[in-house]
Amino acid sequence: MSDPKAPADPVLLGIVGGAHGIKGEVRVKSFTEDPEDLGAYGPLFDASGRRYTVQSARVQKNVVVARFAEVKDRNAAERLNGTELFVDRAALPEEGEDEFYQADLVGLVARLTDGTVIGEVVAFHDFGGGDLLEIAPEGGASVMIPFTEAAVPEVDLDLGFILVEPVAAGLSGAVEAREGEDEDEVDDKGDVSGRDEA
Hints:
It is elongated, with a radius of gyration of 22 Å. The chain has helices spanning 74-78, 102-105, 171-179, and strands at residues 10-20, 25-30, 44-45, 51-52, 54-60, 63-68, 84-88, 109-112, 117-126, 131-136, 143-146, 154-156, 161-164. A hairpin with a 4-residue loop joins strand 1 (10-20) and strand 2 (25-30). By secondary structure, it is mainly β.
């Protein structure tokens, strides 16, 4: 049964990774700036509107071990594996200047520094090696780029786009490798043959 106070504008705060111990605790990958703030913004909700009240949260290695009031034993904790946990955006603090939530990036148009549109941001990932944006073009497979100031020098939420620097994002090198260029083939002017002039 869903809670009547379930988020109207949900923001993902964490994902349950599995049970921890025998007393109903769970391991959660937290997306809050301070991982222990998982419960700082009120109760969490899953996609179906079920409520989870954080009773305790502690960092252990790269996850938060949390205890929810609604989860009484390991069996209940195991059923939460993979559950996404949300809070209403209104419960979160206002962003400062040049700050935004990861959820704000999804749906933005991605364009190169020369103005070429390369797709839309469809997801934000962190696999442990740094933040990545997944960009999906209109046709073809999506690509991942690092979410760094060098690779994404501008984020404009008002106009709905991010600016991508292709070399820093690793997009130019990927195209050259697919074209099978041979770096050793240099013509008499010192230029690498087969390259298009920019």
